[in-house]
């Protein structure tokens, strides 16, 4: 297991460097000069020069590259041109919101995905299976922002059950500990805060979770079908184990091994989805910041955020691989 | 190479038609639904200027008008007609999606082919780059690409297509490369190398020709995904110039309408997206179901179930063995530990005089298939006493494995069984739950391929704990684990390896583990289906000795299914020869092998290649199609001695020679006038109680 | 069949000190291991004979066969084909030789390109080797060869795809493809192992007939001693990358010298009913991992007759002549029981 970890870590380094380099090339080198690209003709030459100098953009490219990679590895993601604030400050403030949203959405997605997918496979070719498959496809086919708007129209505008945007009401904000409002409210015993946090979280998390769940339905179903037909599940049946145990313990368990691996990749999908969800529900997370920076054409801020996303994705995929190896002994053996 | 001849083209069409027919009904319906939807959208896109009531950039309608006669889908806050925008949106979607997936295909497929076939440094670098692209959130990737491109390429179809294709290049690359890696190892590629074919020719004619079959499937799936990505880009304000109709962009505009309760501005473009993506996904899944037989519906097809009839074994490829060798002295310890765990060295007496441990009474198995019912097993009756071993032999497809599974009661869903399976005088076919409880307990099965039969995620020990506790509720985990270890020791697996995982054992060791699982609850009957076919000859001898030893010590009734007549001769008391689902000859091994009566048995023995064989004679012809009608003796078409009767009248098992029976008209008992010729279900069931059966019990 | 084929005694293939090693790496920072698949083999294949390579999985017999055809790169040693060293040649130089040496594979279902019709599959080698002016001529030649292997009349088969055919038919087509360029050497790796027992005899009989008609030289790789006995003039018994015994089939497989050969022969189940219940010695253990080859004689951990010089610190026995006779009739064994080590070996 330790050897596997080392192998996996060693593979991470070039991946990370590659992502950082690509980000640098695309967002720093390709646009030419980020300051003029960002400010356009709005700024005077003197202002541009001053900004270039303060952001280190007047240094030679290779030196900028070195500073960028070194900074990224130390948590320094540069400064936004438009606001002048360090990108790290933005990340620190907004990331917990994104984390809370994505984790809750993942919970919804996994519940829907495994439930519908496994049932669909178990009762293959019955009307239940067809319904499950079509549900999975339609959920996948629904654009997140569209589903979000429909939910807003129905649950907020029409029924007045849930709020359309934000993370909580004024004065209901819990004391910040982790930055996850539901957790903070629970820890501080702030029931009103918890209630408001959950009410605000419900629509964005369900919207995002359902769409990702649609992808998982298809994945779980296919893997479950293969697992139900696999030799060792057949062998478990010939040993007279109760059917429930054969399906849940043997088939579902082995079907979930590849799913865990893919959930790692779905996490990337989840982050993409989070950008759209946050933009739709004005959820004050990283995605919304990115959306705003994109709108302002703030190249350095976008570069900083994208770099953080890259680091985060690499970390998550590392984690997922370790979990896979822990679940499946064959991976850590080979 | 010149083009294919007309003949091969029609063959190819025929092949597709056949696959289409074999695909399940559900798959076919989903595919048709997907195709209809997709084609519908394509037509709308093509005819957009004719269909749309207003131009896509015409913004002179009333603001936010409800759907009505003038504007069927209402209007937007920018004074666009929603219906016209939705129709023109289809056009843009098709343009961008086709351009981006085509671009990704042209780059990703050749790179994947070359990278996968060549390997080496180029491959490693490409894989790293593509993996990095693949791991990154796809939408962010497209956004970054669009963001970086916007300074160089103005917004429009090329910019949108380029930024989206960045996502799909790694996807094509990965799929094609992985497929190429698999195909590269196929012997036919070796054959091409051995004929001196240049690399380019091998890649094009041998690798690509096979790999490209998976491209249509990824194409449809990626196209569906690209529609969503385009919409997301549009929603965020990227990709297309202002005023161009784009579904995502229009939904983005509609966000501000939410407060006013105007639902139509977002609903209709969104429905269009859902419709098109659903259509393309259904099409992709359907095409996959039809082209990729492995994932095809097993429920309703023929060629998925037919290989189940009789998996004929082959020796493992060279070098496939892994894991450390067995420690020395395991063999010598065997007898000691069996005594140590208290196995009775003397065979226990059968519970009642005259009742066989296993009685298979007139069992027939029919598979439903696309070609009609396949009669895999036809009226087989067989009795096995305690401590006795019966060899079941025949060519592949003769139904011997199916019979083995029928005894266990674990036939696939497409099979229908009739007849009885009686264990120690108790009819299991009458009670499914009793049958289930008997499996793994008093009735157990050992498979051909131990490599795949153990749960890879479970330690060896926990297989035992699970099995013992399922059949002996109340046993503690510790006691069950101890019992498992003792049995492992008894079959020659070092018990201190019980906490290892199955893949850490060699093939021979795995088969010992399978046997230990089969005997841990001291069953009455053990069915062994080609237990040594995947093993090397020396390990095979070890396993056969182990089985014989266990049979004698535990008084097991053993049914040994094998195609190897030598194994039967050396380890079985009696032999039953199967052909076309029926037993055609049955008797003591010595009698049958010394004086085979049925012409099929004679031919089979003649075809066996032994160390003494001078000139083997193949059995001419091939076994009959079990899906068709089989009048008369099923062997008649291949039989050198066939008479007219043989083609019309089905022979039944009758005494032939001193101690055995044969189903052949050559023997007087099988005279067409013989009363046993009443070959109808009722008659067959009656015969169960008749003396000839008792005779087979000795 | 054995012994009836003519042979002229000159070597068609001469292999000397051949090694084929595959480096593998077990995880990052894990030890690098080397699979010594073929680990020092010298032998000759005589023109017109059938040489059997027999042994268990992991013995290196398949790799040795592939090395003869240069389908795998040798790590060390030489392979001479028709008197020419082929180990140093590049693909272009090899091409004209390739038509003279051809493989037949174990799995007929995987040996044919599923995307190619039967006619094209058999005609393709002719086009590659420029032995036919155009596709039509190549297909005509292919049809003639197909009929020769019993796919007759060939016409209806030319435009069919392999998936429509049975295993026995496919194996004949694989044979036709191998023979269509007029090779002198055919390396057949378990040609009948995947076939039903009722058709094995048919394919083996066909192979023997073609050998007589076309003057072929066969290298037959098999785990089945009975098949080897039936078809081979000589056999080489392999264990863990080495040849441990080589000689005429009728000698080696009737009076085995090496304890491993004897164990293999003892383990073959006999169909003779008189042999039922015979007590046969069963060799314990399994073939070790080819990355960890035991020292001394590599068979000693499983050998019932191992004695001091065989042990882990003992001497690796070399092939030595036990009975000398004319070319093709000599028996050589790598065992200290038959060729006791001399003091000079210890240095």
Describe this structure as you would to a colleague.
The complex is a heterotrimer of chains A (334), B (698) and C (347). With 334 residues, chain A is an all-alpha fold. Chain A folds into 2 domains: 20-73, no CATH class; 89-286, MetI-like fold (Orthogonal Bundle). In chain A, 78% of the residues lie in helices and 0% in strands. Among the domains of chain B are: 23-55 and 73-295, MetI-like (MetI-like fold), CATH 1.10.3720; 449-520, no CATH class. Chain B has helices spanning 6-22, 25-46, 48-51, 82-118, 120-135, 138-149, 157-184, 187-194, 199-211, 215-235, 247-254, 264-291, 330-340, 400-408, 432-438, 450-453, 460-471, 477-490, 507-519, 537-554, 565-571, 589-594, 599-607, 644-648, 681-687, 691-696, and strands at residues 358-367, 374-384, 389-393, 415-423, 426-427, 443-446, 525-529, 557-562, 574-579, 582-588, 654-655, 661-662. An 8-stranded mixed beta sheet of chain B has the order 6-7-8-3-9-10-12-11, sandwiched between helices. A 4-stranded antiparallel beta sheet of chain B has the order 2-1-4-5, with helices on one face. Chain C has 347 residues and is of the alpha/beta class. In chain C, strands 6-7-8-3-9-10-12-11 form an 8-stranded mixed beta sheet, with helices on both faces. Chain C has a 4-stranded antiparallel beta sheet with strand order 2-1-4-5. Chains in contact: A-B, A-C, B-C. At the A-B interface, helix 1, helix 6, helix 7, helix 9 and helix 10 of A face helix 5, helix 6, helix 10, helix 11 and helix 12 of B.
